[in-house]
Amino acid sequence: MDTSKQFCPNAACSARGKKGEGTISMHDRKRQRYRCKICKQTFSARRGTMLEGLRKPRELIVIVVTLLSYGCPLQAIVHAFELDERTVAAWRDRAGVHCQHVHQAMVEQGQLDLIHVQADEIRVKGYKIIAWMGLAMMVSTRLWLGGVVQVSRDRHLADALLRASCADVPPAGGPCSS
């Protein structure tokens, strides 16, 4: 466990958010806990992640959530790993909430280095309707930046997708300033 990659999560601490300054020490290796030398509070290595408070091994949780994200049926995971259905469903929901928070903190606040963004549209056929869905992805991380659905495939679709993908784009359009 590398203390130089950790920072104090305490909002009242002057060392909050500062990595590699020697303010964090190991508190308990077995339970993976750190201690801030400034405010003296301890915190878990899982603090601020979807794993916070969970007791199962990290590897198992990551495998289960990955399988769910690829569409593996919940019942198959329950059977294969001998887990309770409610546990797997709770991990799925927890991962979704955590992803929403990350999206709001990074994508919606424009905290991305948008060097290469790939955008595309796809024709979607529904019951008595045909629509167009525009999607944008940050190529370096494969992070989905946004999506827009419209009945018509025109400049308005592209402009709306640009606004959904780049938080700092003015309403009139124009390139991302990032």
Question: How would you characterize this protein structure?
Answer:
This protein is α+β, with helices and mostly antiparallel strands and 178 residues long. It contains 4 helices and 6 strands. The protein has a 3-stranded antiparallel beta sheet, with no helix packed on it. Strands 4-5-6 form a 3-stranded antiparallel beta sheet, with helices on one face. Strand 5 and strand 6 form a beta hairpin. The longest helix is centred in the middle third of the chain and has 23 residues, at 85-107. The chain is flat and about 60 Å long. Residues 169-175 have low confidence and may be disordered.
Summarize this structure briefly:
This protein has 178 residues and is an alpha+beta fold.
Key words describing this protein structure:
6 strands; single chain; 178 residues
